[in-house]
Amino acid sequence: MKVLCFGVAKEIVGSSELILDNDKGLTVGELKSYLNTAYPQFLEYKSYVVAINQAYADDKLSISPSDEIAIIPPVSGG
Amino acid sequence: MKVLCFGVAKEIVGSSELILDNDKGLTVGELKSYLNTAYPQFLEYKSYVVAINQAYADDKLSISPSDEIAIIPPVSGG
Amino acid sequence: MDSIIDIQVLSTPLSIDACYNFVLDEKCGGIDLFVGTVRRWNKGKEVTHLHFEAYVEMAVKEMKKIALAAIEKYGIEKISIHHRIGQVELEGIAVIIAVSSKHRKSAFEACSYAIDTLKNEVPIWKKEFLIDGSYWVNSRP
Amino acid sequence: MDSIIDIQVLSTPLSIDACYNFVLDEKCGGIDLFVGTVRRWNKGKEVTHLHFEAYVEMAVKEMKKIALAAIEKYGIEKISIHHRIGQVELEGIAVIIAVSSKHRKSAFEACSYAIDTLKNEVPIWKKEFLIDGSYWVNSRP
Asked: How many whole angstroms separate alpha carbon D76 and alpha carbon D28?
């Protein structure tokens, strides 16, 4: 399972892509718990959201291994 | 005394300038009364205003012969 | 004062770039531009072109008043108001208002205020030429 | 649909003319353009330049949603939204939103709605480079 990282998330993770094992499937909420544990720096920043297949996703959504997954830190375009 | 005419006023008067006698001075209100009598077509149009020295003037203002006088039909710029 | 307001009544085509470049300011993060163009259809009648006439000296004075009032009311940095006179074809530009501001909300408000006030107070007249005639806009009851 | 909305995320300088020409429409009398530029001073700190990063495919989808919502909510005719990515210098253009409408009030409202919503919802990130460091805007509490 590949997780795209943008902005400050890319700096925290140290890469623009994070590869995770996800054979049994997990929810967005479970992914966030994993990320906050593996990269505690996320807790120092404003909350981020997760996009699944290029759409904002809530914590209950189940992720399947073929989904396009991205960490979306607070946006600041414009 | 010279009166500048713009827009529909120029067409009603038939000229971009109207020359009037004004040896004794008159008010803006008196000028309008004169214009409405001399050119009754003004009464068919939306009310106009008069500018004295490039500023909107009310009816009580006295006009002196050296003033710059203009008939301002309803504006429609932009 | 002259470095923050730019007022022009022109008989040649208006330039968005000219207005934009005037208001561009390193203190500002937002520029709002309103561009008034000549449309083909007005109240169901087909327009072929417009002709604008101005009492130029007074129009410039009134436009300066609007520019200063916009700065005073909305705290914007710079404002440019250009109005065309003479014949303007379909899709041609009749007026441009550009405003720069630190905050985008005040840029929108100032630009909207300026075009509304211009249309009410500046001595400029528009003659609309239709397929079947012409008339001075606003003159009829 | 594609003929009334124009969404672009570009790594080359943005063009006001391109956005203006896209929305120009003979049915419309008013065009409003918002141009977001890079300012030197932000909250008292001196900026040297910005860097924009986007999740391009999703950003384009979100910008399309905003464009369609603006048309739906305000009855405008056409809308163009261009956003820059990569390094942008002082006074450079980060974003342009252009809207054409029959009525100017809806042009202002739609343009204001579009930039507000873009800043809240489109996955684009700005890194501000200051004289003495750099940081991702909005990321800190």
From this structure: 9
